[in-house]
Amino acid sequence: MDINKKIATRQSYGEELVELGRKNEKIVVLDADLSSATKTGMFAKEFPDRFINVGIAEQNMMGIAAGLSTFGKIPYASTFAMFATGRGYDQIRNSITYPNLNVKICATHAGITVGEDGATHQMIEDISLMRTLPNMKVMCTSDDIQTKWAVEEISKIEGPVYLRLCRLSTPVIYTEKQKFEFGKGIQIGDGTDASIIATGVTVSEAIKAQEELAKRGVNVRVIDIHTIKPIDTDLIIKCAEETKKIITVEDHNIIGGIGSAVCEVLSEYHPKKVIRMGIKDEFGKSGKAEELMKYFNIDCESIINKVID
User: Residue 17: which CATH number?
Assistant: First the structure.
C-alpha cells in the first residue's frame, strides 16, 4: 500500500469512464447537476453527445436510464449516494431492478467520510437498501486501481449494478498487476489471530492496523470485500475456520451493511461470533472525514483496539 499516494475513488471513476467511453460506444452517462463533484464532467467534455445532465431530478434520471437501457445503451447514472439511493429508491426498485434492466448506478460521496456536508448528506444506509433489492448487484471499491477495474467490469455484467464511491482521498492499495474477480474478496496476509473484513475506505485503515499489530506480535489477515452482493461466502467461511476472531469494519450503518452480510453467511454455514464495527444505528455529524472516522471508531486505532480487546 502506498500511503503517500492518495486518490479519491470518485476521481478514479471519472477517469475510467472516459477510457470506457472510448472502448464502448454503448456507454452513456447521466448526472443530476453534480458532474464537477462526481467527476462525470470528464466524460461530458470528451463525449458531449453521450452525456445527459438531467438537473436536480434524480428520480427522473433513474427513469431515463431505464429507458435508455431498453434501446441497447449501457447507462451510468451518477449522483451523490444520498440522492441516488434515497431520493431515487422508488424508481430504482420499480423501473430498474423489477424489470432487471441493464443500468449502472454509480454513487459518490457515500458514508460519513463525506465530512463537513453533515448528517443529511452522509448516506449510511445505501448498501442495506441496494443489497435487499432483487436482481441488484452491489460493489464498494477501496482504491484507485480497483475502482478503475470495477467501472469497466460492471459494463460487462448484464443487469443492474450499484457501485459505491467515496469523496475522501485514500491510499493506493494495489498495483496494476493485481487480479480482481467480481464476487470474490481479496485476502491480504495469512494471520490467524483475527480476520478484519472491510470494504471501501476502511480497507486501507484495516491494512494500517494489520501492519501495526504485526509489530506487536499479533498477526491478522485483511479481507477486502469489493463485491458485497453476491458476497464471497467461501472466503468468509474459510476465515471463520482459520482465525480466532471475525471483525467487520465499514463506513455504513452496522445494520444491513457488510457486517450484517457476514453474519448472514456465518449464521447459516459456520456459526461464529462477529464483531461489527461501523456506524451504530445513528446519524452522522459534520466534521473532517478523518475526525469522523475516529469518532465513529472505524479508523486504524479503533481496529487495533478491537483486535487486542
Answer: 3.40.50.970
Query: Is 200:167 a contact under the CB 8 Å cutoff?
Result: no
Listed in sequence order, the residues at least 6 apart from 267 whose beta carbon sits closer than 8 Å to its beta carbon are none
Tell me which residue has cell 472516522: 293
Candidates 15, 16, 58, 205; catalytic one? 58
Structural domain harbouring 62: 2-172
Cell numbers 480497483 correspond to 146
What confidence tens digit (pLDDT) does each residue in 280-307 have?
999 999 999 999 999 999 999 999 999 9
153 is catalytic: no
77-90 pLDDT, tens digit each: 999 999 999 999 99
Residues 128 and 199 in one domain: no
Same domain, 247 and 290: yes
Residue 105, phi then psi, degrees to nearest 5: -100, 115
The three grid cell numbers given for residue 294, joined into one nine-digit string = 475516529
pLDDT of residue 309: 84
Residue that finishes a domain, picked among 146, 172, 198: 172
The C-alpha cell of 110 is what?
A: 457515500
Secondary structure in 3-state letters for 20-63: HHHHCCCEEEEECCCHHHHCCHHHHHHCHHHEEECCCCHHHHHH
Indicate if 166 and 28 belong to the same structural domain: yes
Instruction: Note the pTM of the prediction, 2 decimals.
Output: 0.96
| Cα–Cα distance for residue pair 142/98, rounded to 1 Å | 29
The reply to whether 211 falls in a domain is yes
Residues in the chain: 309
For residue 193, give the CATH number of its domain.
3.40.50.920
